[in-house]
Amino acid sequence: MGEIKKMNATPLYLQLKNKIQKEIRSGMLKPGDKIPSEAQMQKEYNVSRVTIRNALSELEVEGYIMKVQGKGSFVAHSDMLRLPIGVTSFTEDAKMQGVKLTSQVIRAGLEPIKSEIDKEFFGLDGTGEVIVIKRVRCADGIPIVIEENHLSPKLRGLEKEELTGSLYDILINKYHMLPVNKGRRSIKISFAAEEIAEYLQLSVGTPVIESEMCVFDMNGEPAHTVKDIVRGDTERFLKWYV
After folding, report:
1. Of 33, 176, 226, 230, which residue is 20 to 30 A from 148 by alpha carbon distance?
2. Do 147 and 42 fall within a single domain?
3. pTM score of the predicted model
4. Helix H or strand E encompassing 186
5. Which residue has the higher pLDDT, 110 or 124?
6. Backbone angles phi and psi of 209, in degrees to 5
7. Do 94 and 36 belong together in one domain?
8. Residue range(s) defining the domain that contains residue 107
9. Looking at residue 55, what is its pLDDT?
10. Per-residue b/e over 184-215, b at no fewer than 16 CB within 10 Å?
11. pLDDT at 145 over 70
């Protein structure tokens, strides 16, 4: 299956999960094939059984494998290769709900790296840069979220793309990057300051939901970090984020 890199910033269970997932997607592992046992993987990769179980558990939830009592885990039978359910884009969510989506780009460009999360996630020091894409996303004309994505400077030129549509479509079709796995995430409730209130057309002090998340691609490599500030007064759309 390949090497598990213990010095990699990507969690060990996620590296293992992505390796199995990639072999299923590529056809190396076919429907009905038996996945190596926990003992075999533990010996091959020198990782704990907890790491292996976490990887297999997520693969099972996402429909890639099935567990058979007393026999082990097998590649699930499926008519199609599915995107894992853990990550969907705002555009996908809107389409599924039959909602008309529009976006306003606030800023897009290379900026000095500031947050410790970005430094650790992208493996950059304090003098590096990230691509920042900040937008207001609207559903049926209602401003729903202020979305700020930070991406690797290796994707230079992305900031010049047409960014009023789906960022994931651009990453997939032009940069061949498939963001599929959620990493570290934090959520908190705060109150809209003047700038946030203006962008979301709220009264100052209205509760909002702030979330930060790291997203990996299908190879377990860093895709992007994202900070969302979501209006908390519209239950119809709030459920997309919590």
Report:
1. 176
2. no
3. 0.64
4. strand 179-191
5. 110
6. -105, 125
7. no
8. 90-238
9. 92
10. eeeeeeeebeeebbebbebeeeeebbebbbbb
11. yes
pLDDT digits (tens, 9 = 90+) for 169-219: 899 888 888 787 776 678 888 999 999 999 999 999 999 999 888 888 877
Q: Which of 30, 49, 75 is the last residue of a domain?
A: 75
The per-residue pLDDT of the chain, averaged, comes to 83
pLDDT in tens, 15-26: 899 889 888 877
| 180 phi/psi in degrees, rounded to 5 | -135, -20
Closest CA to 240 of 104, 122, 142: 142
Contact 65, 76 (CB under 8 A): yes
Q: Characterise 72 by phi-psi region: left (phi > 0), alpha (psi -120 to 50), beta (else).
A: left
Q: Which of 20, 41, 75 is at the close of a domain?
A: 75
Domain shared by 199 and 99, yes or no: yes
Question: Residue type at 148?
Answer: E
Say whether both 148 and 59 belong to one domain.
Answer: no
Q: Tell me the two tokens of residue 101.
A: 């989506």
CA distances from 106 to 132, 146, 149, 153, 193 (A): 10, 9, 12, 19, 17
